[in-house]
Amino acid sequence: MITLGIETSCDETAVAVVDKGQVLSDEVSSSVHLHAAYGGVVPEIASRFHTEYIFSVFKKALRDAKTGIKDIELIAVTCGPGLPGSLLVGKAFANALSFAEGLPLVEVDHVNAHIASCFISDQEEDMTDLFPFLGMVISGGHTNIYSCRSLNDFSVIARTKDDAAGEAFDKVAKILDLGYPGGPIIEKRAKGLTKHPEIRFPRALLNKKTDVDFSFSGIKTAVLYYWKDCRKTEEEKDKICSSFQEAIVDVIDKKVLRALELTGAERLAVGGGVVNNELLRQRLVLRCQRSGVKLYLPEKKYCTDNAAMVAFLGEKKFKAERVRA
Prior knowledge:
Layout: E1 2-7, E2 12-19, E3 22-30, H1 32-35, H2 43-64, E4 74-80, H3 84-101, E5 105-109, H4 110-116, E6 133-138, E7 143-150, E8 153-158, H5 165-175, H6 182-190, H7 217-229, H8 234-263, E9 267-271, H9 278-291, E10 294-296, H10 308-324
Parallel strand pairs: 1-4, 4-5, 6-9, 9-10
Antiparallel strand pairs: 1-2, 2-3, 6-7, 7-8
């Protein structure tokens, strides 16, 4: 089944073509350069960018997949969560195509799609055969853990009480005047540095052994106060980046361990933009090896927002519904 995926939940305008789980094209046009001056995404700018570029991204996705609109059999579109104005552009475009071409339309949860992205490149195992498993999304807007029981049953069992991990990266980068987005910049500044005992930022919500929720606001605030009182040098910035990144990864590692122990899960799928971070990927691999848990991570190109994951999950949901009918 040739599926067209459309993703416009935030600042990426993305369209992909997927056929039986195989990605034929995956086009993304980002407006991140327009938001950099503000240190974060401006909703009005994002929605206007989607409106201006979605048709050209759509045409390029079809061209690169060597398909035409008449070849498409299903449309999958992100329905949320996300910025309301951005979501509206993608849904309006998808509805117009569906109506004009008489194509079925399936709505896909953006966060669930991030979990599904872990299985796009897995040619040996089918996602639908792996339920139940533990899912996790670590991104700019979410740091959640899910109990995944079926394609339509992703239940939140842990979430952040304040900032998401990716949001904390962005805010710390802003404090240090490093630019936006913060994740890649902080990772680059921290690369190759060893731990710094003199800089230890707090790890919140680790006292109760049954607490699997997250809190990253305190780490960000600790960075702010440390930066106010320290030497304002580039070397000190690098040390702060290293220690901050270590704190974030340490918290995620410990919370993942708790979630695995509390649920007894044998499989873990972790998606989202922050999973691009190499230290985090290494720590997750090590944690799951020690716990005897099968770990699924997406290719780095599928960690950030993309339409391939939307088409991939949409196709599976549509086929499952058709079988039940």
